[in-house]
Amino acid sequence: MRSLPTPNVTPLRGGPVLRWGVLAPGEIANDFVTTLHGNTDQRVHGVASRSAERAAAFAAKHGIPRHYDSYEQLVADPGIDVVYVAAPHSEHRRLALLAIAAGKHVLIEKPMALNAAEATDIAEAARAAGVFAMEAMWSRYLPQSSVIGQLLDDGAFGDVRLVTVSLGWPAVFNAAHRMFDPALGGGAMLDAGVYSLWFARFVLGAPRSVQAAGILAPTGVESQAVATLDYASGAQAAVSTSVLTSTPGLPTINGTDGVLTFTKHFVFPASFVVTSGSEELAWADDSGLVGRGGLCWQATALAQYVNDGLTESPLHDLDESIGLASTIDEVRTQVGAL
Ligand SMILES: NC(=O)c1ccc[n+]([C@@H]2O[C@H](COP(=O)([O-])OP(=O)(O)OC[C@H]3O[C@@H](n4cnc5c(N)ncnc54)[C@H](OP(=O)(O)O)[C@@H]3O)[C@@H](O)[C@H]2O)c1
């Protein structure tokens, strides 16, 4: 290997533009709209909150022409093409189904739903309605994932034997917060671990078996989990997640012919090194986007897919989201989480 592949990603500007609607203007909705408006041609035409004041404030902050105090009003707006669901996990299924029933395309924050059964309900509804639906697994749409995907397709690592991935950030325990409240879909796996399990799945596909252990928070959701995944190929993945402590977020892909090591956090626009024998090649995101600024790549990809007549993402389709949710279910069951 003399050089690394060039990212093959949908350009942030100049492509098809959709009219977006935002349901649930919380923390991530704010970051998503900031980078959408700042770095792409996509535009948000409406925002809906359970509170008229919050909807109006979010609209004013982001220059959004319409705001609603009910989610139902936004999905009924004929001036909106695609709905972004940015509510806590417990609300994803209900709000995705609301948007789909109104004939809207939908981008659903990660994880797509509380469990595989709910994710299946969303997939079935979207397929029956013929609308586009996608889990906001935004790291899959970053340039680095395009490069790594091409390396995997080319067999650049030989046989991949092991993937290691860990993701955690410390959260102060608060029984009422969505991170810890079982009624809101709390738990480290649903919030952070979904990225770790996605990364292992991106590299190795669906696991054959899962062994997991964890630590429960006082509310009964998992605050930490460690899982070993086995694959039909003979490979393994060591996956962990925590809201008790931070981890550097630097996965490795370990093959018979090469090793990839992230040198910047894999969830965000990142960098990595590929070593093969004495050869070492480094790659770094040069988009200028940092951290959650990278959330916009998934949106331009979605707009292109809709324009192309697709109803699912070719990079992370609904069966992938259901499979990912199944593995989360398995881990959470073994850990004994509520
Ligand atoms: N991609 C990323 O990097 C990233 C980062 C953080 C979070 N997330 C994901 O984004 C989603 C939302 O997380 P967040 O941190 O933005 O949450 P948040 O700040 O708590 O905002 C969620 C919003 O959902 C609405 N909501 C609807 N039903 C609710 C309920 N029963 N309880 C509380 N709020 C409710 C609220 O808005 P109104 O009441 O105003 O309608 C609230 O502001 C989750 O799926 C999370 O995993 C993704």
Account of the 3D structure:
With 338 residues, the protein is an alpha/beta fold. The chain has two domains: 19-138, NAD(P)-binding Rossmann-like Domain (Rossmann fold, 3-Layer(aba) Sandwich); 143-286 and 316-335, Dihydrodipicolinate Reductase, domain 2. 33% of the residues lie in helices and 24% in strands. It contains nine helices and 14 strands. The strands form two sheets. An eight-stranded mixed sheet has the order 8-9-10-7-11-12-13-14, covered by helices on one side. Helix 4 packs parallel to helix 5, helix 5 (116-129) packs antiparallel against helix 9 (318-335) and helix 7 crosses helix 9 (318-335). The mean pLDDT is 97. NADP nicotinamide-adenine-dinucleotide phosphate (NAP) binds at residues 24-28, 49-51, 54, 86-89, 91, 109-110, 138, 178, 184, 191, 292.
Given as residue ranges, the uncertain stretches (5+ residues, pLDDT < 50) are none
Structural class, please? alpha/beta
The CATH class assignment of the largest domain is Alpha Beta
Strand order of the largest sheet: 8-9-10-7-11-12-13-14
Give the H and E element order.
EHEHEHEHEHEHEHEEEEEEEHH
CATH topology of the largest domain: Dihydrodipicolinate Reductase, domain 2
Helix content: 25-40%
Describe the biggest sheet?
8 strands, mixed
What is the average of the pLDDT values? Answer: 97
Based on Cα principal axes, name the global outline.
Answer: globular
Straight-line N-to-C gap: 47 Å
What fraction strand? 15-25%
CATH homologous superfamily name of the largest domain? Dihydrodipicolinate Reductase, domain 2
